[in-house]
Amino acid sequence: MVDHVKAYAQAVISGEIVAGEYIILACKRHMEDLERSKLAPFNYYFDVEEANARIDFTEILPNPETGEPVELLSYQKWIIGSIFGWKRKDNGNRRFKRALITKARRNGKTFLVSTMGTNEFFLCETPKRNRKIVFASNALKQARIGFEYMKDQIRTLTNGSKAMKKRVKILDAEIKDLYSGSTAYPISSDTSTGDGFAATVAIIDEWHESQDLKMYNLLKSGQIALKNSLLAIISTAGLNPNVPMYREVQMLKKVLRKERSMDDYFIAIYEQDDVEKEAELPETWIKSNPILEHPEIGETVMESLKMDLIAAKEQRNLNALYVKNFNVWRQVSEESFISIDDWNACAVDEAPDLVGREVYIGLDMSRSDDLTAASWIYPLDDEARRYYVDSHSFVATKGGLDQKISRDKIDYREMADRGYCTITDKETGIINQQQVIDYIKHRIKSQKLKVKGILYDPHAISLVLNELEEYPLIEVGQGAKRLSPPAKDFRLCVYDKRIIHTDNPLLTIAVNNAIVKEFNDLIRIDKDKNREKIDPIAAMITAHYEAMHYYTDEFDWNSYYESEEFTL
C-alpha cells in the first residue's frame, strides 16, 4: 500500500523536494512519531488506510476553476493524510485537535480549506450525527469563500446521484445533511450567535487579520466537550506581528525545534528561511510556494512571482512582497527600528539570575491618561558583554479599560494577570504615580539590585523624583542629539545578540511598533499611529543612554563635558 504521507516526508528530508527549515522539521517529526507509535507510552498511531481514503475522496472533488477532479500534489496529500490519518490508540479519535497551515498566497489555500470541510461532512464517524463544520474569518466575505467552494464540491457530487440530492440541502448560508443532521456554515468575528458554537471542525481562514483571540477562544471553548474536534488555522503571514497568529507561529516553531511539546497540534509552516537572500533565488521559492510543484500552475505562479518582485523593487515595497509572496512576517513599515527577526533572535526561555546585579532603569512617564513604562537594563558581565532587558508598564483607564483595550488592540487585563503591567487603581483612571514608585522600589529591594542610575525624561515626573532621590537620578532630554547615540547602540547590540530578553509581550509590541526617523545623521524612534504603543522601548533607550557605556574601559568625560551633548 502506498503511504503518500511518508513518501512526502522522506522526499523532504532527503532534499529531493526543496523545503524550508520548519517543513523539514515537521517531516522529521512525522518520521520520528512513526517510530514512537511502536511504543506503548506514545498514545498515537498512523492509519495509512484512513489517510489514503481521505486523499482518494479529496481527489474526486472538483477543481473550482475547471470543474474537473483534482489530482493532489504531494504536499497536499501530506497535509490531508496527516490531519486525518493520525489517531489515538485509546479511542480511535483524531490525534490532531488543532492544526496550523501557513503558506504564501495563490497556493490553493481556499481549496484545501473547503476539502477539509467536505471530508468531515461526509466521512467523519465520530460523532455520527449532528456534526458542525464552521468556516470562520475576521470578515464574513472571507469566510464565505471556503464555504462557497464546499457548496460547489457538494453540488458536483449530487449531480450524478438522486440519493445524494435527497440527502443534502444547499442553502445560501448553510449546507444540511438530512441523513446525519450535520451542517456547515460561515461566520465572522462579529457574529452575534457565537455562544452556541460546538463545531466538530472549525476552520479559521486568514487569521493574521484578527487583532485579538475573541473568535479563536469562542470556537475553541465550544469544542471542550467534543471528543473528536478539530480547530484548523489556514492563513498567510501578515504585516502586523502584534497579533495572536504571529505569537502562535512562534510558539509552534518551538514545538518543531523540540523546545516544547504539543503532540495534538499539526504544524505546516511554508516560508522562506532567509527571504532577503532567497528572493533572488527562484529555485528556493517552493519553500513558501509549495504549489510550484505543479508542472503547469507552478510555471504560471513562478512568472507572477518574478514580475511581482520586479514591481516591488521599483516601488520600494519589498516588505509587502515578502509577506504575501514568500510568507514571512514583517513590520508594515520599511523604516522599522528593529526587525522582528533580529528581536526574536535575542529571545531566551529563562531570565538569568538577576539578584544582586547592577541595573539601569529608564522611565517614560506618560500623560496621566496613557501608558507609563519602567524599563530595566542589567549588564551580565559575561565574555559576550551582554545585557538582559525587561520592562513593566502602568496603564491608565480614563474613558474605561475596555475602551482602551479595544483602541490599543492589547488585552491589558491578561497582561496584568501575567505580571507585565499594573492597571491604575485610581477611580479617575489616571496613572497613579505612587504605584510606579512602589513597583520600582519593590523590584530593587526584592532583587537586591545595585542601581547605577534611574534615567528619566523630565516630563511630568516631579513626584517620582522626590520619592526616588535615594538612587542616582539622571535627567535625559528627549532631543535627537541626546537619544540618537543610545538608540543606534541599542540596535547594534540587538544585531550582535548582546541584548537578551524573555519575550515580554508589551516590550515586544513596542519594538514592533517603533519606526526610525532620520535627519542630519541622527535618529529618533517614533510610531506610525497614535494608538500604537512604544513607551517600553522609549524607556529602554533612555536607560541605555548610560548603560551603553558600561563595558567601555575608559570613557572620556572631559570630552563629553566639552561637547554639545552636555547641558546643565
TrEMBL record:
Domain Terminase large subunit-like endonuclease: 263-548
Domain Terminase large subunit-like ATPase as annotated: residue spans: 75-253
Name of this protein: Terminase large subunit
Organism: Bacillus subtilis
Molecular-function GO terms, alphabetical: endonuclease activity
Gene3D superfamilies to which the protein is assigned, alphabetical: P-loop containing nucleotide triphosphate hydrolases
